[in-house]
Amino acid sequence: MRIIALALLLLLATFISSNAKEATPSPIELIRPANKTLYVGENVTFVIQTNSRKIDVITLKQDNNMTTEIPVKPTKQTYCKTVPIHVGENNITVRAFEKGKVVAEVKRNLYFLSELFEGADEPEGYNRAFFHADNNENRCKACHDMTSNVPTNDEALEDVTQTTCYKCHQPMMRTKSTHAPAANWLCLDCHDGTVSEYNMEDKGKSKYLVRDPVAGACGKCHDTVEGWFMNRYTHGPVNDGRCIRCHNPHGSDNEFFLRKHIWDLCTTCHAEKATGKHIVSSFVFSRNRGAHPTKGPRDPARPERTFVCSSCHNPHGSSGIFLLRMKGSVPFNVCGRCHKKTSTNYGSKR
Ligand code: HEC
Ligand code: HEC
Ligand code: HEC
Ligand code: HEC
Ligand code: HEC
Ligand code: HEC
Ligand code: HEC
Ligand code: HEC
60-74, 152-166, 283-297: which has the minimum mean pLDDT? Predict the structure, then answer.
């Protein structure tokens, strides 16, 4: 009898202790992002819930050795932080500390598929997750106003920081230069929730979808766009309407809101042209180590600009062959843009 009682007691004790273990929640819970999320932009928002009052700091450590520290207050449980990720696969470790000791660790693998490298590197096992659907937004409503007050009449709010999107998306606009409709928080000029040819399957997945291809939306404000399509020659990605393969629609640290400096941008897709050997080399350059320069401090035809691929080529379209900044099909006609001498003497001593 005693033995049975003891056994029962033991059973009860283990039951209670194992239950107690389950009842102790992990010191931190990651509300978002989900593991293996695919991003098309460089910002990821972490929303972290703390379940222990003893945590004093949370860190987000990225594989490029960037660490973001979030100081924790005993009175505050939810922490939201947007961090930039790099192109390709990112491994991010979230750690919670108590007096310098790690008490919890959660890892996330995320992928930034840049438009510029689209198709080159489709990652396996990753999924794009849209955020702006009611079931996701519900978890934020207690503290964030989730209704849009973005004007749709092209007249920005006098104080753009009062746009409801601002509080969460402000980190996106930290680039050196920002594109007018984004800088004015007229986000719905592009994100009107509609889809097009390339993203039909996303229909309804987010309130703020943007049509893909986006060229039509750009053309509403940039009336030069129509002309590029009327040109005899239109550049591949432009022809597909994929302006955002080269331009970041929100802003960038580079001129013209480009995703890279022009020369780096062009050679991302046309690496073999970096040497300049392609520039009618056989005819002219036997004396010049076989190549024309493709970059330099000054474009003779546009003195305020540096000399790059787009000094000779129009990146959008041209009535001249090979998108050259000239008319017709004789590539030599472009030389006169910068070399004022006759076609048989292209010396640089102008
Ligand atoms: C000129 C058009 C345009 C404007 C204006 C614009 N966007 Fe975008 N945005 C785009 C396009 C195009 C994409 C890429 C769409 C895709 O692939 O899902 C995009 C992507 C995004 C993304 C996801 C990828 C990323 O870069 O993080 C977010 C978030 C976003 N936009 C927020 C905003 C907000 C907030 C505003 C207003 C401040 C805004 N956008 C204004 C065109 C625009
Ligand atoms: C308990 C309140 C609370 C909840 C719930 C909450 N947030 Fe926040 N969030 C804040 C506060 C407060 C800020 C301002 C920054 C700060 O003080 O930490 C903020 C800031 C942000 C930012 C800007 C971060 C940055 O680095 O600038 C984003 C993005 C954000 N929240 C997204 C979300 C999302 C998405 C959800 C729902 C999954 C959510 N938040 C739920 C309170 C909350
Ligand atoms: C509570 C914070 C919050 C608010 C408010 C908010 N967003 Fe977002 N938004 C996010 C988060 C989080 C994501 C997912 C990307 C990330 O992790 O940063 C996102 C993603 C997006 C995307 C990409 C598509 C999608 O659904 O994932 C667009 C476009 C966008 N937001 C536009 C807007 C616009 C326009 C507004 C204002 C009308 C707005 N957002 C308000 C937090 C917010
Ligand atoms: C709602 C109107 C509007 C839409 C839509 C729009 N833009 Fe713009 N864009 C402007 C304005 C206004 C400027 C000039 C001010 C500035 O530089 O931001 C501009 C400037 C630019 C510039 C820099 C031009 C220069 O000479 O420096 C580029 C590049 C550009 N836009 C690309 C795009 C692309 C790509 C799209 C589509 C994804 C687009 N724009 C959609 C209004 C718009
Ligand atoms: C292959 C890359 C690429 C694509 C795709 C592209 N652009 Fe550009 N864009 C550039 C470069 C490079 C410049 C700067 C050209 C220069 O050096 O003058 C530029 C300049 C611009 C300018 C300002 C000067 C001008 O030429 O009008 C606007 C506006 C613009 N782009 C809009 C667009 C729009 C809209 C689309 C889509 C229809 C688009 N771009 C597609 C690379 C690109
Ligand atoms: C996102 C990739 C991408 C980028 C960036 C890019 N291109 Fe292209 N380019 C293409 C594609 C695709 C074609 C079409 C290839 C074909 O049809 O053979 C093309 C074709 C060309 C052609 C040949 C056109 C013809 O009529 O034969 C020229 C010239 C050219 N690009 C110049 C440039 C310059 C200059 C830049 C930088 C401003 C640039 N490209 C950036 C993808 C790109
Ligand atoms: C000095 C003027 C000049 C510069 C700078 C220049 N190109 Fe060209 N490019 C030409 C000429 C001329 C042709 C026609 C070549 C021919 O007739 O064989 C051409 C042709 C091309 C073609 C199409 C021909 C093919 O073989 O597919 C591409 C793509 C191209 N260039 C890309 C670039 C890129 C990328 C850069 C910058 C790294 C660049 N070019 C810099 C003058 C230039
Ligand atoms: C957009 C301006 C531009 C265009 C167009 C251009 N060049 Fe040049 N060229 C330059 C620059 C810049 C240099 C190098 C700096 C210098 O020596 O002046 C150069 C150098 C040269 C040189 C070398 C001179 C030397 O003494 O080393 C030759 C030869 C030449 N170019 C021929 C051509 C030919 C042929 C074409 C037409 C297919 C052409 N260039 C089109 C800007 C241009």
Answer: 283-297
d(CA 25, CA 33): 19
- Are 248 and 155 within one domain? yes
Residue 119 has pLDDT above 80, yes or no: no
Please tell me the distance between residue 204's alpha carbon and the centre of ligand 2 in angstroms. 24
Distance 236 CA to ligand 6 centre (A): 6
pLDDT in tens, 177-211: 999 999 999 999 999 999 999 999 999 999 999 99
Q: Which domain holds residue 177?
A: 133-259
Q: What is the pLDDT of residue 346?
A: 45
Instruction: Compute the distance between CA of residue 140 and CA of residue 148 in angstroms, rounded to an integer.
Output: 14
33 and 116 co-located in one domain? yes
**What is the CB neighbour count within 10 angstroms for residue 221?**
12
Alpha-carbon distance of 267 to 255, in angstroms, equals 17
> Which ligand neighbours the alpha carbon of 299 most closely?
8
**Confidence (pTM):** 0.94
- The whole-angstrom separation of Cα 166 and Cα 89 is 28
Pocket of ligand 4 (CB under 6 A): 179-181, 189-190, 214, 217-218, 220-222, 243-244, 247, 249, 256-257
Residue 55's CATH number? 2.60.40.10
pLDDT > 50? residue 106: yes
In angstroms, the CA 251 to CA 179 distance is 5
Q: Whose CA is nearest to atom 26 of ligand 6?
A: 322
Ligand 7 centroid to Cα of residue 278, in Å, is 6
Other CB atoms within 10 A of residue 300 CB: 14
Query: What pLDDT score does 5 carry?
Result: 58
- CA-only gyration radius of the chain, Å: 28
- 1 within some domain: no
Ligand 5 cavity residues, CB under 6 Å: 215, 218, 222, 224-225, 235, 237-238, 242-243, 245-247, 256, 258, 262, 310, 315-316
| Residue 315 included in any domain | yes
